[in-house]
Amino acid sequence: MNEHGVDLFGEPGHDITADDAIMCKQAMRVLNTTYPGYRWFIGVNSEGGILFIKCLDVSTVWAYVLHLDKLRTDPTLKRVRIAAGELLERASQRCGPARG
What we know:
Elements: E1 8-10, H1 18-34, E2 40-45, E3 50-55, E4 64-67, H2 68-71, H3 78-90
Parallel strand pairs: 1-2
Antiparallel strand pairs: 2-3, 3-4
């Protein structure tokens, strides 16, 4: 479990590269800074080249999938903020700090 109380998981049977683990930690930091109070889950499939984001307050099933190669060229991880905002908006949740 990381410092934000969220586990970092890869796909079963697939290893997570060190670079992708760092990317996940950075993405989690962005999510907890931009949208504090929500419970975020970040998963990665290094072999498949994807990172997926879930907001556990919204759904344990639905995820937003991002391609790792595009995130590597996005130093501020703006795509992560946009993806998380989309998840919240589609669930009619507040884009910003969670309430209560």
